[in-house]
């Protein structure tokens, strides 16, 4: 009976060590994809689909990262800085855009992420972004 308890304790410690040693995902690099959103345009709510979006993660320190989002707004290229954090589950993303708004995201795989952007106020809206890492 003592051997069974020792084995069970050893197995439990091994599992706990594996859980604690989960590797933080590496987000560095360039990501591209499309965005679809409902937002306020000229005093009415409008659906806009399949707009191009690029995300560049330029620096990462453990679960914190920073970079730039690039998109076209009314024919003008916009580059907006952001900083973010990876949740303890190593799957959830939290991003604060420097201009305005927040992204909540999910790491789907090493090369795929989804972001949900939320902005309140006069120009409020909700957006879904599906991005994949550019290999190169």
Task: Explain this structure.
The chain is mainly β. The chain has one domain: Lipocalin, CATH 2.40.128. The chain has one helix and eight strands; from the N terminus they run H-E-E-E-E-E-E-E-E. The chain has an eight-stranded antiparallel beta barrel with strand order 1-2-3-4-5-6-7-8. A hairpin with a 5-residue loop joins strand 7 and strand 8. The longest helix is centred in the N-terminal third of the chain and has 19 residues. The protein starts with a helix and ends with a strand.
Q: Helix coverage percent of residues?
A: 10-25%
What is the topology, as strand order, of the major beta sheet? 1-2-3-4-5-6-7-8
Question: CATH class, anyone?
Answer: Mainly Beta
Please tell me the CATH architecture by its name: Beta Barrel
Mean pLDDT: 87
Domains (count): 1
- The residue ranges in which pLDDT falls below 50 over 5 or more consecutive positions are none
| Largest sheet data | 8 strands, antiparallel, barrel
Shape, principal axes of CA atoms: globular
State the end-to-end CA separation: 56 Å
Q: How much of the polypeptide forms β-strand, as a percent range?
A: over 45%
Number of strands: 8
Structural class: mainly beta
Rg to the nearest angstrom?
20 Å
- CATH fold group: Lipocalin
Count of helical stretches:
1
């Amino acid at each position: 009976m003592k051997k069974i308890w020792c084995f069970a304790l050893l197995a439990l410690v091994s599992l706990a060590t594996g859980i604690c040693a989960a590797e933080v995902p590496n987000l560095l690099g360039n990501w591209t994809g499309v965005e679809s959103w409902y937002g306020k345009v000229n005093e009415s709510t409008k659906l806009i689909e399949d707009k191009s979006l690029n995300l560049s993660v330029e620096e990462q320190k453990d679960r914190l990262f920073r970079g730039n989002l690039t998109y076209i707004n009314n024919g003008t290229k916009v580059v907006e800085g952001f900083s973010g954090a990876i949740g303890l589950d190593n799957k959830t993303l939290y991003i604060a855009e420097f201009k305005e708004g927040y992204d909540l995201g999910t790491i789907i795989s090493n090369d795929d992420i989804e972001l949900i952007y939320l902005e309140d106020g006069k120009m409020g809206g909700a957006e879904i972004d599906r991005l994949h890492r550019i290999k190169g």
